[in-house]
Write a structure and sequence with these properties.
There is one protein chain. By secondary structure, this protein is mainly alpha-helical. It has eight helices and no strands. Helices cover 68% and strands 0% of the residues.
Length: 146
């Protein structure tokens, strides 16, 4: 149930169905809390916070809540998919679009703890260099989909 729910939450944000997205995100966080031993608990935790942040930014224009949600999502223990493919970067991209570079760099440091895929370190390093180079958003490619 976690992956379809995470997908639905992201799709709801993309469709500007913010109340649905928020509901799905809260259900993901509830699942994460109810099933701490589930190997995909980290996915529910990550996507729950990430989607709440996207809703806070898009619907409520609450930048501080979006930043807090990004950092909360980065506190995940990970999951098999997060550890290999890495985190979804939609909220990071959205925050970069409004100039919030520092929080995204902090988030990258958090991702370095759980993301162990073959390109993880290189991607995080490249993305950080792009951000520090001023005024550009990295090409997150597949990490806008996962």
């Amino acid at each position: 149930r976690i992956y379809p729910l995470a997908y639905a939450a992201n799709a709801a944000v993309a469709a500007a169905e913010f109340n649905k997205a928020e509901s799905y995100a809260r259900e993901l966080l509830s699942l994460a809390q109810q099933h701490p031993q589930d190997p995909y608990q980290g996915t529910a935790f990550f996507y729950g916070h990430m989607v709440l942040g996207r809703v806070a930014l898009a619907r409520d224009q609450n930048v501080e809540q979006a930043k807090a949600s990004l950092l909360a999502s980065g506190k995940t223990a990970g999951s098999p998919v997060l550890k290999s493919f890495g985190p979804n970067m939609n909220l990071a991209r959205d925050l970069l679009a409004i100039g919030e570079r520092d929080v995204v760099l902090q988030f990258f440091a958090q991702c370095d703890v759980f993301w162990k895929g073959s390109r993880a370190k290189q991607d995080l390093r490249d993305w950080a260099e792009t951000i520090k180079g001023c005024c550009r958003i990295p090409n997150f490619s597949g990490n806008l989909v996962y």
